Amino acid sequence: MTNQISLGRDRVGLISVTACLAALGLAACVYPDSGRSTGYREGPPMQATAVVMVQDDYVYYPQYEVYYSSSRHQYGYRDGNAWAWHPAPPQVSLNVLVASPSVRMDFHDTPDRHHGAVLQQYPKNWKPASDKQGGTANKEKSQKDDHKGGQNH
């Protein structure tokens, strides 16, 4: 009878030590009601996790009221009262979209916070001002080339 009581107490102690080490990651625990130390036990190795924060970068296509996120590789647009994000533009082919006028946005949060002002500044019929030296046209072409390259990823 004495052996069974002792065995039960040892099981409780073993479970307590295991739970203590697993849950708290302590180097040593004490058996309940005994005062005995389990000794030093090394916890699991710690791993550092790197977090990379990428700011959203948007290109806006006024004719279609569509934003392209180069970091997400998705197209954002209003779908009724909500915003939708998809890997393909809505109701227009990619070739037609990238051939239309576009402008790089200077905000890095979400388009829904800026869309009202963007609509006023860039109405559906907006076209970039042509630069005699080709600066604006070349910049727009470069943006479209970057955008096409982002689709291949």
Radius of gyration: 31 Å
The oligomeric state of the chains shown is single chain
General form:
elongated
Estimate the helix proportion, in percent: 25-40%
Strand/helix succession:
HEEEEHEHH
Q: Please, could you describe this protein's structure?
A:
- This protein has 153 residues and is α+β, with helices and mostly antiparallel strands.
- It folds into two domains: 1-47, no CATH class; 58-151, no CATH class.
- The chain has helices at 2-24, 94-99, 115-121, 135-151; strands spanning 58-61, 66-69, 74-79, 82-86, 103-104.
- It has a five-stranded antiparallel β-sheet with strand order 4-3-2-1-5, covered by helices on one side.
- The termini are far apart.
- 10% of the residues are buried.
- Residues 1-9, 24-31, 131-145 and 149-153 have low confidence and may be disordered.
